Amino acid sequence: MEIQDRVVIVTGAGQGLGQMIAVNLAEQGAQLALIDVNESALRITQDQCHLLNSKAMIYTADVSNEQEVEEAFQHIVED
């Protein structure tokens, strides 16, 4: 599947598997919406994606909180 320039949402992007997925998608040219509860960890992932010339926006949210997820998705749509 071609993901060049498609917007991809990655949850848990601040560390571990989510971070690895985000970086891999950045290598493939995806535009990323990165979500995690840890903003400082998200910024590290964002920096890694930017080094790969990928647009990566960060959104702080706890995915176990429905309202926070809805707000994050609203911001993603607006951005």
What's the mean pLDDT score? 96
Under CATH, the homologous superfamily reads NAD(P)-binding Rossmann-like Domain
Oligomeric state: single chain
| Shape-level CATH architecture | 3-Layer(aba) Sandwich
Distance between the termini: 24 Å
Topology as H/E string? EHEHEH
Q: Compute the number of structural domains.
A: 1
Task: Look at the structure and give the CATH class.
Answer: Alpha Beta
Give the neighbour order of strands across the main sheet. 1-2-3
Fill in the CATH topology.
Answer: Rossmann fold
Strand content: 15-25%
Largest sheet: 3 strands, parallel
Global shape: globular
GO molecular function: oxidoreductase activity, acting on the CH-OH group of donors, NAD or NADP as acceptor
Keywords: Oxidoreductase
Protein name: SDR family NAD(P)-dependent oxidoreductase
Organism: Photobacterium damselae subsp. damselae (Listonella damsela)
Structure in words:
GO terms for molecular function: oxidoreductase activity, acting on the CH-OH group of donors, NAD or NADP as acceptor. This is SDR family NAD(P)-dependent oxidoreductase. Keywords: Oxidoreductase. With 79 residues, the chain is an alpha/beta fold. It has one domain: NAD(P)-binding Rossmann-like Domain (Rossmann fold). It is 48% helix and 20% strand. It contains three helices and three strands, in the order βαβαβα. It has helices spanning 16-27, 39-51, 66-78; strands spanning 7-11, 31-36, 56-60. Strands 1-2-3 form a three-stranded parallel beta sheet, sandwiched between helices. Helix 1 packs parallel to helix 2.
What is this structure, in a nutshell?
The chain is an alpha/beta fold and 79 residues long. 48% of the residues lie in helices and 20% in strands. It is built from three helices and three strands.
